[in-house]
């Protein structure tokens, strides 16, 4: 979609959070973190709902506020949706949560850092103090891919107590379909260098890493997230043996414990406390996430959890346009007296 230049333009501010929580992470990542914050035209933020954007693996919140060719970045998308009365005004925060391992799942890890606590205890409160927005019953979280995973897991763990609404675009779920098949390729990538430490050294010295190496890095990041080993290099241990690629039962179980499909039965009441829950996925998603999304949809129906579920003709890539569905859905749910639909 061509960006329109005839619309009232909101303002993007950059806040800086000097995090106490992130200071001791094993990856050596910076504790000073930027948060871009969109405030709609004609508003200073006070009294508006707050939406928090969690981006996918290899991304940062900065990527969503950056200039974009032949299309809209997210602030421009918000300008259009608000100007066309598709959604009520909302403040939207874009935290930078990029890590040395290429991304984030937005949960606490002794290796990656306490990212869940950072969002709940430092980043979101800072935005709310600065702009007078959000607050209890007026906070929503959304994201795609790893960010969609973060959104649904935060809803599972903190729905009703911190988050009031959530939207998950093509989020990670159904781990046996998503991650298990990547283990042989990752083992081969590590074996090429002899160890995880040697792989990481080579990766970080390479000015043009391959797509395969980035994909292997993602699997290492998942291991550091779901089953970190404080005694291992960067906290990384894979859930498979490095010689025969056999699954190690207790390590793989630690991964599966964080699969939203595993978590939903334990945390159903938190989802029921949400004002709005949105889940979608492309029918041609190349990471097999459609099947996890369908399983989640079925589970939510079985548990009588109200939600909006959609499938669309698309892959896992270039699906920012799906925010035209989720952002109005969330903002209306968080705005008193906003018209439905």
Structure description:
The protein has 341 residues and is an alpha/beta fold. It folds into two domains: 11-173 and 260-334, Alpha/Beta hydrolase fold, catalytic domain (Rossmann fold, 3-Layer(aba) Sandwich); 177-256, no CATH class. It is built from 13 helices and ten strands. The protein has an eight-stranded mixed beta sheet, with helices on both faces. Strands 5-6 form a two-stranded antiparallel ribbon. Helix 6 (183-193) packs across helix 7 and helix 6 (183-193) packs across helix 8. The mean pLDDT is 97.
Task: Provide a compact summary of the structure.
The protein is α/β, with parallel strands linked by helices and 341 residues long. It has helices at 61-65, 74-83, 115-131, 146-158, 175-178, 183-193, 196-205, 211-226, 249-256, 260-263, 268-272, 289-302, 323-334; strands at residues 11-18, 32-39, 50-54, 91-95, 108-109, 113-114, 139-144, 165-169, 276-282, 308-312. The protein has an 8-stranded mixed beta sheet with strand order 1-2-4-3-7-8-9-10, sandwiched between helices. Strands 5-6 form a two-stranded antiparallel ribbon.
């Amino acid at each position: 979609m061509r960006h329109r230049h005839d619309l009232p333009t909101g303002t993007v501010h950059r806040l800086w959070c000097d995090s106490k929580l992130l200071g001791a992470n094993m990856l050596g990542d910076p504790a000073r973190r930027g948060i871009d914050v969109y405030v709609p035209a004609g508003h200073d933020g006070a009294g508006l709902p707050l939406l928090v954007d969690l981006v996918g693996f290899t991304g940062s919140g900065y990527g969503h506020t950056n200039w974009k060719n032949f299309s809209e970045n997210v602030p421009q998308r918000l300008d259009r949706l608000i100007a066309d009365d598709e959604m009520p005004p909302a403040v939207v925060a874009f935290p930078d949560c990029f890590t040395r391992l290429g991304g984030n799942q937005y949960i606490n890890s002794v290796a990656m850092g306490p990212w869940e606590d950072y969002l709940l205890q430092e980043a979101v409160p800072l935005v709310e103090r600065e702009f007078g927005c959000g607050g209890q019953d007026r906070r929503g979280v959304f994201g795609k891919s790893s960010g969609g995973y973060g959104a649904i897991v935060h809803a599972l763990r903190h729905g009703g107590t911190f988050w009031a609404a959530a939207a998950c675009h093509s989020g990670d779920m159904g781990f046996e379909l998503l991650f298990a098949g990547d283990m042989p390729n990752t083992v081969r990538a590590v074996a090429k260098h002899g160890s995880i430490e040697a792989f990481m050294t080579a990766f970080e010295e390479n000015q043009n890493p391959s797509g395969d190496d980035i994909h292997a890095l993602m699997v290492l990041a998942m291991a550091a997230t779901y089953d970190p080993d404080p005694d291992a290099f960067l906290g990384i241990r894979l859930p498979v043996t490095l010689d025969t690629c056999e699954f190690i039962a207790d390590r793989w179980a630690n991964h599966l414990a964080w699969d939203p499909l595993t978590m939903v039965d334990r945390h159903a009441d938190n989802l029921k406390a949400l004002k709005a829950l949105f889940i979608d996925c492309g029918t041609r998603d190349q990471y097999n996430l459609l099947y996890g999304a369908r399983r989640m949809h079925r589970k939510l129906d079985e548990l009588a959890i109200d939600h909006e579920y959609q499938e669309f003709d698309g892959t896992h890539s270039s699906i920012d346009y799906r925010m035209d569905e989720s952002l109005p859905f969330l903002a209306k749910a968080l705005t008193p007296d906003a018209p439905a639909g």
